[in-house]
Design goal:
The complex is a heterodimer of chains A (111) and B (117). With 111 residues, chain A is mainly beta. Chain A is built from no helices and eleven strands. Classes of the chains: A mainly beta (111), B mainly beta (117).
Chain lengths: 111, 117
């Protein structure tokens, strides 16, 4: 398993505030992903990265931005949080066998 | 477009029963990967298996087995002699093949499996 650490693990914030979630990996994997998990939807891809400074949108990218300044770190930012962004967020990395490994998740509540 | 359907939202069985979780997928790719992940009540996502589209051999790992049938676009998961510790949400997933591609994973909506003692 890839060593993936997500921080914070839990966060409560207010509508309109900026929020940044961090994903840190120790396996030097090239590809990293951010997903959100909501009841009835499984996991949906928000953004992904295929290298330092190289990112692209997923299926639910509106309201989110990402940055990757180092191979090991992938940041997800909600510029102005809304209640619809209340969710559990998972970071993942992909190994050379195309297997994605996931972090423990961040539970975000936007009030 | 790629799609994964897990029609069984919830399944509840008594311990030691066998249970099969269904997964049907859609893709236009000729080469792809199929996955199963387990999400126990603690919330983490645990990788169980990856199957390549050109390998239709069934696989068995202990009490777990997987049946891949390209003809019906199905990748079903069977737990034999279920145990309470098998209680979890199980996700089937599909991705394009090729390390140089994004290989975005499309997840099904999950099947919640409850094993009663």
């Amino acid at each position: 398993d890839a060593g993936i650490t997500q921080s914070p693990r839990h966060k409560v914030t207010e509508t309109g505030t900026p929020v940044t979630l961090r994903c840190h990996q120790t396996e030097n994997h090239r590809y990293m992903y951010w997903y959100r998990q909501d009841p009835g939807h499984g996991l949906r891809l928000i953004h992904y990265s295929y290298g330092v400074k190289d990112t692209d949108k997923g299926e639910v990218s509106d309201g989110y931005s990402v940055s990757r300044s180092k191979t090991e770190d992938f940041l997800l930012t909600l510029e102005s949080a809304t209640s619809s962004q209340t969710s559990v967020y998972f970071c993942a990395t992909r190994d050379t066998k195309n297997i994605q490994y996931f972090g423990a998740g961040t539970r975000l509540s936007v009030l | 477009a790629q799609k994964v359907t897990q029609a069984q939202t919830e399944i509840s069985v008594v311990e030691k029963e066998d249970v099969t979780l269904d997964c049907v997928y859609e893709t236009r790719d000729t080469t792809y990967y199929l996955f199963w992940y387990k999400q126990p009540p603690s919330g983490e996502l645990v990788f169980l298996i990856r199957r390549n589209s050109f390998d239709e051999q069934n696989e068995i790992s202990g009490r777990y087995s997987w049946n891949f049938q390209k003809s019906t676009s199905s990748f079903n998961f069977t737990i034999t002699a279920s145990q309470v510790v098998d209680s979890a949400v199980y996700f089937c997933a599909l991705s394009e093949a090729g390390y140089s591609s994004a290989s975005k994973i499309i997840f099904g909506s999950g099947t919640r499996l409850s094993i009663r003692p």
